[in-house]
């Protein structure tokens, strides 16, 4: 009996290691394919409307949906890169602003802890110069890598078009693997999985759009430098739960501090950003994204950590809906259903 249990545990460990190795070493192929599948699920209702209501063929409908994704994603990307290029061109002037911030910080530390400005200058100048140089290098590297990113994006669009065009064939292929006695269960699982991906991504896009409007209004009122860049960045990065909202709030507050605003203004601005994040986390997400795709905080954190270790930034985005699909599959299995208690939010 113990031997059989040990054998099952070993088989499970080997299976888990095999899945991890497949995901890690096959990331160059699997990441664009997964983005293509998820985007196909996102625009699938539009695809169905064009085909069944407007009586367009599969190819024209798939082309229009692919073009729609290209225009929206390409427009946001162009806006972000344009604003980032403006920021990169202003980095020499920003160094002076940063040095002014360091000087004010030194004065405050001298009064607070009694450390001489000479000692502070020796400690801070080395690190501030290296920090600014690293920032300039990272921005330049990001702008220089846009050709590779553009090629990967075009590959994702090709996969999107093909998945929309041949989705019926993919369903038939899966049904042949499952067998006729499992057809109804397999179809239900595929429909629910596609629905969860659509609900999560579409809901996330709406939350990001509302968040962008709130951020833009707040940044405009407080006259935050590079408010368009910070707005686009802040909205995009929130696609990563927990970590994203923290970064999207921290960066503009740091920028506001560096540009020499008074302490009361900084506290007021930080409070407004905090309120916006609370609205996003406790009002927008539960109402717009809904309970259907909600995972427990533990499941979301595990998904982010595993996704980040396997696929990097792409994994941190994709593995959350992955786990939502996994929760549906577990709920359809009587043997694995107890695991759903860990993944489920309630």
Automatic annotation (TrEMBL):
<feature type="transmembrane region" description="Helical">
    <location>
        <begin position="228"/>
        <end position="259"/>
    </location>
</feature>
<feature type="transmembrane region" description="Helical">
    <location>
        <begin position="266"/>
        <end position="284"/>
    </location>
</feature>
<feature type="transmembrane region" description="Helical">
    <location>
        <begin position="141"/>
        <end position="166"/>
    </location>
</feature>
<feature type="transmembrane region" description="Helical">
    <location>
        <begin position="296"/>
        <end position="326"/>
    </location>
</feature>
<dbReference type="InterPro" id="IPR002549">
    <property type="entry name" value="AI-2E-like"/>
</dbReference>
<keyword id="KW-1003">Cell membrane</keyword>
<keyword id="KW-1133">Transmembrane helix</keyword>
<feature type="transmembrane region" description="Helical">
    <location>
        <begin position="31"/>
        <end position="50"/>
    </location>
</feature>
<comment type="similarity">
    <text>Belongs to the autoinducer-2 exporter (AI-2E) (TC 2.A.86) family.</text>
</comment>
<dbReference type="GO" id="GO:0005886">
    <property type="term" value="C:plasma membrane"/>
</dbReference>
<feature type="transmembrane region" description="Helical">
    <location>
        <begin position="199"/>
        <end position="222"/>
    </location>
</feature>
<protein>
    <recommendedName>
        <fullName>AI-2E family transporter</fullName>
    </recommendedName>
</protein>
<keyword id="KW-0472">Membrane</keyword>
<keyword id="KW-0812">Transmembrane</keyword>
<dbReference type="Pfam" id="PF01594">
    <property type="entry name" value="AI-2E_transport"/>
</dbReference>
<feature type="transmembrane region" description="Helical">
    <location>
        <begin position="62"/>
        <end position="81"/>
    </location>
</feature>
<keyword id="KW-0813">Transport</keyword>
């Amino acid at each position: 009996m113990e031997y059989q249990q040990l054998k099952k545990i070993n088989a499970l460990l080997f299976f888990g290691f095999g899945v991890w190795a497949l995901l890690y070493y096959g990331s160059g192929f699997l990441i664009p394919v997964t983005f293509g599948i998820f985007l196909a699920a996102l625009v699938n209702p539009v695809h169905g409307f064009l085909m069944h209501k407007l009586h367009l063929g599969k190819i024209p409908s798939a082309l229009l949906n692919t073009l729609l994704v290209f225009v929206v994603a390409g427009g946001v990307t162009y806006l972000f890169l344009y604003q980032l290029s403006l920021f990169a061109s202003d980095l020499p002037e920003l160094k002076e602003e940063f040095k002014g911030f360091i000087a004010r910080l030194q004065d405050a530390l001298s009064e607070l802890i009694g450390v001489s400005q000479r000692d502070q200058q020796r400690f801070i100048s080395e690190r501030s110069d290296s920090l600014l140089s690293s920032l300039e290098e990272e921005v330049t590297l990001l702008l220089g890598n846009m050709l590779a990113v553009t090629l990967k994006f075009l590959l994702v669009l090709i996969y999107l078009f093909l998945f929309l065009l041949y989705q019926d064939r993919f369903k038939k292929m899966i049904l042949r693997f499952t067998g006729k006695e499992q057809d109804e269960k397999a179809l239900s699982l595929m429909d629910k999985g596609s629905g969860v991906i659509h609900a999560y991504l579409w809901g996330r896009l709406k939350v990001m759009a509302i968040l962008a409007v709130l951020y833009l209004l707040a940044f405009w009122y407080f006259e935050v430098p590079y408010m368009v860049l910070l707005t686009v960045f802040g909205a995009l990065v929130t696609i990563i739960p927990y970590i994203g909202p923290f970064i999207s709030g921290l960066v503009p507050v740091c920028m506001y501090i560096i540009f020499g605003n008074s302490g009361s203004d900084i506290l007021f601005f930080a409070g407004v950003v905090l309120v916006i994040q609370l609205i996003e986390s406790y009002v927008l997400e539960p109402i717009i994204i809904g309970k259907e795709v909600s995972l427990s905080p533990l499941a979301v954190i595990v998904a982010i950590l595993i996704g980040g270790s396997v696929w990097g930034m792409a994994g941190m985005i994709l593995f959350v809906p992955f786990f939502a699909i996994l929760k549906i599959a577990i709920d359809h299995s009587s043997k694995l259903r107890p695991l759903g208690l860990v993944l489920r939010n309630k």
